[in-house]
Amino acid sequence: MQKIIIAIDGFSSSGKSTMARELARNIGYAYIDSGAMYRAVTLYALRHGMIDADGRMDAERLVASLPDIRIDFRVDDTTGKSRTCLNGEDVEDEIRGMEVSSHVSPVAAIPEVRHRLVSLQQEYGRDKGIVMDGRDIGTTVFPNAEMKIFVNASPEVRAHRRLLELQQKGSSADYEEVLANIRERDHIDRTRKESPLRQADDAILLDNDNMTHQEQMDFLLKTFRHIVDGKH
Ligand code: CDP
Fold first, then answer.
1. pTM
2. Ligand 1 site: residues with CB under 6 angstroms?
3. Positive or negative CA dihedral for 104, 110, 116, 120?
4. Pairwise CA distance, residues 224 & 205, whole Å
5. What is the Å distance from ligand 1's center to 1 Cα?
6. What pLDDT, on a 0 to 100 scale, did the predictor assign at position 209?
7. Atom of ligand 1 nearest to the CA of 95
8. What separation in Å is there between the alpha carbon of 231 and the centre of ligand 1?
9. Which residue has the higher pLDDT, 2 or 70?
10. Span from the CA of 88 to the centroid of ligand 1 (angstroms)
């Protein structure tokens, strides 16, 4: 069967990563979390003192360091989930914390950072058979993707989901802090100059405020089969 590219974009904590990972597993495709790549670059900047306590960033130094930043994904044998590595070190847990979340959107707004990560992402999709989630996958990374989904849910629902996720990992973030971070990232992601978050004209909107997990997966699988069958 001919393989396609599936682009899943949407707002922070809209559930797109879980959705994309499960869809990929169901159809035997590879899954790439593009947000994890921006998070890994942010962690590098934090560790190398390129972002100070007030959040001021030395973008010039970060851009000069880009050739030294190697990001790859390794599959965990026990869980089967992919884990993000920064220069060979597993940073999967660290990049999900509030410190990285609070600084990632300004880092992702730097054009040179985007250019570098977009070309890596395009490389992953060269042979198709891939599900990638992010903010600009259907608009910039793969504008010709055969299947594009744009996911949305209200900021409050998304904040509850993210809080639960953080609590399950033993983190003590509070609801107001998480909600404020989501609103702030929405704003930066939507208004930045370089490939802002927006729904591609040919993307299908999936508003999942009131959808169960199963309804969502059924919808995605039906859409996938429809597109793939239509290609014969
Ligand atoms: O998991 P969550 O939806 O909160 O965010 P993420 O997908 O891990 O992405 C983290 C941040 O990276 C976003 O808030 C964006 O600022 C940025 N990002 C981006 O600019 N472009 C992408 N393709 C993916 C993420």
1. 0.92
2. 12-13, 17, 34-35, 38-39, 104-105, 108, 134-137, 185, 189
3. positive
4. 14
5. 31
6. 83
7. 8
8. 31
9. 70
10. 22
pLDDT digits (tens, 9 = 90+) for 168-212: 888 888 999 999 999 999 999 899 998 889 999 999 999 988 888
Dist CA 134 CA 149 (whole Å):
11
Q: How far is the CA of 197 from the centre of ligand 1 (A)?
A: 10
pLDDT of 104 reads 95
Nearest-CA residue for ligand 1 atom 5 is 12
Cα–Cα distance measured from residue 23 to residue 53, given in angstroms and rounded to the nearest whole number: 39
Which pLDDT score is estimated for 232?
Answer: 60
Q: Which of the pair, 135 or 53, is modelled with greater confidence?
A: 135
Structure-token pair, residue 218: 């059924």
